[in-house]
Design a protein that fits this description.
This protein has a domain of about 170 residues: NADP-dependent oxidoreductase domain (TIM Barrel, Alpha-Beta Barrel), CATH 3.20.20. It is built from eleven helices and ten strands. α1 packs parallel to α2. The longest helix has 15 residues. One of its GO terms (molecular function) is D-xylose reductase (NADPH) activity. Its EC number is 1.1.1.307. Pfam families: Aldo_ket_red. Belongs to the aldo/keto reductase family.
């Protein structure tokens, strides 16, 4: 029996599950099976993106589950993201429709501006997903303003191609700027969020505007080890940290469950992934116990303002958090 996953009510009245399955770094050859198995386990939110390069396979897993009667389309909450190369206002709807076709869907439940970065357009027939570099392997800025991109997103939202829309990797100043020009405030803000990077002021700002927050990389450096990021290798792993382990032992839970509960108990959605069936089920079951106020304060007190998912950490000269 799959655990009951609570949801958060978005500012447009839609409901978003607090726990989902993140598709970043899910290999193409296993992706369809992982999505299908996650649905069987009880996951209903799937967080994808153009840049992950596995949207076709993700859609195959969804289709299999629907065809077998495990779920209906309306039971699922499918998330995707607009990549930097498609920020020009005339490019937003065409790439959104391509991504929907890749998934085999008529709409996304949530579509997000992936980064507040405009890059030169790369035709999907040339390279897809394009990544940060152009066809000459150079970093070429685009000319779209964040406001123009946002208004193009609003048009697609009003057209019904997405049921909700959001922003990701925005800092407080950009979120305040959105307020100046938005016809519709975003429903969600997705950010790197773990005990080494709490970003409490940004979380509070978003919530004060009725914008739900989703955390990615909830396990901190563990998410970046396979990317051979030196900063991740130099940082004590949260899953092995004595503070996290002692709290986990107290509650008879895993360190991963404690890290995820630290977020969900504060009404922050999480999108972990796992290939392991047991951990897959454990990660979903993170709302059936409560941490104490002291537990939450202790974990939050581990904050180091330590960010891993910043372009310069990948050798990309776009210091958006400078």
């Amino acid at each position: 029996m799959a655990p009951t996953v609570p949801s958060v009510k978005l500012n447009n009245g839609k409901e978003m599950p607090l726990v989902g399955f993140g598709l970043w770094k899910v290999n193409n050859d296993t992706c369809a099976d992982q999505v299908y198995n996650a649905i069987k386990t009880g996951y209903r939110l799937f967080d994808g993106a153009c840049d992950y390069g596995n949207e076709v396979e993700s859609g195959q897993g969804v289709k299999r589950a629907i065809d077998e009667g495990l779920v209906k389309r309306e039971d699922l909450f499918i998330v995707s993201k607009l990549w930097n190369s498609f920020h020009d206002k005339e490019r937003v709807k065409p790439i959104l429709k391509k991504q929907l076709a890749d998934w085999g869907l008529e709409y996304f439940d949530l579509y997000i501006i992936h980064f507040p970065i405009s890059l030169k357009y790369i035709d999907p027939s040339v390279r897809y997903p394009p990544g940060f570099f152009d066809e000459n392997d150079k970093l070429s800025p685009g000319k779209a303003s964040l406001e123009d991109t946002y208004h193009a997103m609003e048009e697609c939202y009003e057209e019904g191609l997405m049921k909700s829309f959001g922003i990701s990797n925005y800092v407080g100043a950009l979120l305040l700027d959105v307020e100046r020009y938005a016809k519709h405030l975003p429903q969600t803000l997705q950010i790197e969020h773990h005990p080494y990077l709490v970003q409490q002021d940004l979380v509070d700002l978003a919530k004060s505007r009725g914008i739900a927050v989703t955390a990615y990389s909830s396990f901190g450096p563990s998410s970046f080890l396979e990317l051979k990021m030196q900063k991740a290798h130099d940082t004590p792993l949260l899953l092995e940290h004595e503070t996290i382990k002692s709290i986990a032992d107290k509650h008879s839970k895993t360190p991963a469950q404690v890290l995820l509960r630290w977020s969900t108990q504060r009404d922050i959605a999480v999108i972990p992934k796992s290939n392991n069936p047991e951990r897959l089920a454990q990660n979903l079951d993170v709302c059936s116990f409560d941490l104490s106020k002291e537990d939450i304060e202790t974990i939050s007190g581990m904050d180091k303002d330590l960010r891993f998912n910043s372009p310069p950490n990948y050798g990309i000269d776009v210091p958006i958090y400078a």
